[in-house]
Amino acid sequence: MFSSLLTASTGLQAQQLSIDVIANNLANVNTVGFKRSRADFEDLLYHTYRAPGTKSARGVEIPTGLQVGRGTRPVATSREFSTGELRNTGNPLDLAIEGKGFFQVRLPSGELAYTRAGAFKTDALGQLTTPDGNPVEPAISIPPDAVNVTIGKDGSVTAAIAGQPDAVDLGQIQLAYFVNPAGLLSKGRNLYTETNASGPPSISSPGENGVGTLAQGFLESSNVKIMEEMVDMIVSQRAYEINAKVVQTVDQMLHYLSSLR
Fold it and tell me: How many domains does the chain have?
């Protein structure tokens, strides 16, 4: 009977984690380039009273066993990298990836990080950066007298310079692709870093080797669907209530036992 309390407690903890993940998804429903997470669970070890296929005292093989589970535990929070809806902003430095791939940015530590959020700015030197000031890799610098900055679907960056008849080539934006993007480590600030699980990045120009193309003047919205999250939240809430009811029921049973004369 005490094992029932422990089993129900694992269910309570699991549903609490599920609610935490859903809450984070809903909190980032308007975060550019955000990818929703899903909590994954597995059952715990079983107490085996009788294994399937054992023989009875009469020498007959028993077709089914007698096992009782010990609850559940969280094993992963999986990110879903489906493309979010593209939102037209009209800002020439806003970029969205139509398809697979990540922008590369250089952190202050020198480490490379990866992001789907393309709300880029320019710093005092004209270098293309994230809103936190992390420069895009490879570096793109826009001269102060540049007008009509154009970023093509293939990542080529050009601009018209005052007094010059022809557009000037300012560089090429490249995208990174991972075999297992779900294995990336989330660092916050819309950034991910490489891990052994994700594998090393493959670098390509947009539109090549299976990576997506760029859309200038657009931002990728979060792929969180509010209605789906609300349904998942209700399911987790009901599951939490049911596990709490198990604890209450076992407590009542123990009360009955302790009151026996």
Answer: 2
